[in-house]
Amino acid sequence: MSFWETITGNDLTRDWHAFETRAAALPAGHRAAWEQIRQHLFPFGDFTGRNLTPIADAALGLLEEAAADGRDVPEVLGDDIPGFCAALAGGEGARTFRDRWRDQLNRDVARKLARLGG
Amino acid sequence: MEDLTEMLKGTLEGCVLEIIGGEETYGYAITRRLNELGFTDVIDGTVYTILLRLERNGLVQVTKRPSEVGPPRKFYALNDAGRAELATFWAKWQYVSSRIDKLKEGGR
What we know:
By secondary structure, chain A is mostly helical. Helix content of chain A is 73%, strand content 0%.
């Protein structure tokens, strides 16, 4: 990734365009699932959302494989798409705003307690 | 057997490791194997998130192979770290199951 792309986010726009092209080729049910996955992944994004690209790629890959094998969405993902997204994003490298705020808060509290001699 | 999800949660990763340890395989085949074993609740999505976690933790070697239909498939094989993790899983399983059996027998 070049400096220019980092600043403008051009690479992200390009990646997501590519995802949409791939999604457009899916059968209707799988495409609808992709829409849902995209929505549910969004809250796990970091500042630029760059951390979501590999996760979205993986999820789309699973839908493509399922479609090719003729398996439908409930069979593959069950009825808990938000849960699936959380599990996908839950690993390392999926740091969200909330985690960072929590870390910041923990550090501040620890520092203040240390100052009190606690 | 149904409604095993809660009970399986901690052990499914070990089961997937064991299946991959047997031979190089891919996601859907792992799900089918688990279903055949009687874990009918297990779906692709669950197996897929486990595979991603194994990959992120560097326990598996991933090879992309073209498939007859659709996109290339990811095949998974255990590496040395994966084999060590699998051995640890069975040791832990042995411990837990022996304790639980003991409990059932009334602590004798």
